[in-house]
Design brief:
SIR2/SIRT2 'Small Domain', alpha/beta, 275 residues, 37% helix, Rossmann fold
Length: 275
């Protein structure tokens, strides 16, 4: 495989990277909007906070899904970006994913734009705890649930660690151990805003680079698309690697309709470093 336009565009430049769900499909995590994606209706923050049945269903499914995500390993694309950071080509990475696979692959300068699956926050007092600690509390409140769910087999996990589990009606949710308030995964739901400090860190990554590479994002949601618009406003070259159209195609200097892993592996092997 060759991508001379992409290699030529990025060679010798400091590259900021923005990644989306298509980045992790080769690790076995389906994306939301790719051409082969199953129908998906991610829960909104309004549903989570206002509907106890939705909340019960979410925690039951997440109790399975987060374990699957914890076991997921980085793919060749994640490893390639980590290698590009080590050689000085990539100066920072913004990800819309909550799966921590960039960190697991060895990337150091990472802004988790939408949070991560690994922590939980209380909406009332702000107390945070690890998802692993909450898992122990949920298991104690729902003995045998994991075994029953796993025995069915064929469980699919979404990009937000939501798993398709049918037996959720009897699942007991757990409240904040500090104040008894409502616990929520420390991720940005559809309908929520990314915090200002996180957005500012992400913009700084773009501002410190000479080019922007988008990998595996349709850029449908503004939380990611704004960085493409920002790069374009500064006259930065923009490269997009994604299967299918994206919201930013008209702003792209180079667009490759392809999967992330082979293209990023190619870049890592081309010694595009600015050093």
């Amino acid at each position: 495989m060759e991508a001379p336009e992409l290699v030529g565009l990025l060679r010798g430049r400091r590259v900021a990277v923005l990644t989306g769900a298509g980045m992790s499909t080769d690790s076995g995590i389906p994306d939301y909007r790719g051409p082969d994606s199953p129908p998906s209706n991610p829960m909104t923050i309004r549903q989570f906070t206002s509907d106890p049945v939705f909340r019960q269903r979410y925690w039951a499914r997440n109790h399975i899904g987060w374990r699957r995500m914890e076991q997921t390993r980085p793919n060749a694309g994640h490893r390639a970006l980590a290698a590009l950071e080590r050689d000085g080509s990539v100066t920072g990475l913004i990800t819309q994913n909550v799966d921590l696979l960039h960190t697991k692959a060895g990337s150091r300068v990472v802004v988790n734009l939408h949070g991560t699956y690994a922590h939980v926050v209380c909406l009332d007092c702000g107390h945070t705890m690890t998802r692993a600690a909450l898992a122990e509390l949920l298991e104690a409140a729902n003995p045998g649930f994991l075994e029953r769910a796993e025995s069915v087999g064929g469980i699919a996990v979404a990009p937000d660690a939501d798993a398709v589990v049918n037996d959720t009606a009897t699942f007991r949710i757990v409240d904040c151990p500090v104040c008894g308030g409502m616990l929520k995964p420390d991720i940005v739901y559809f309908g929520e805003n990314v915090s200002k400090p996180v957005v500012e860190r992400a913009f700084s990554i773009v501002d410190e680079a000479d080019a922007l590479l988008v990998a595996g994002s349709s850029l449908t949601v503004y939380s990611g698309f704004r960085f493409v618009r920002h790069a374009a406003s500064r006259g930065m070259p923009i490269a997009i690697v994604n299967r299918g159209r994206t919201r930013g195609d008209d702003l792209a200097t180079v667009k490759l309709d392809n999967g992330c892993s082979p293209i990023l592996t190619l870049l890592a092997g081309e010694a595009i470093s600015a050093r």
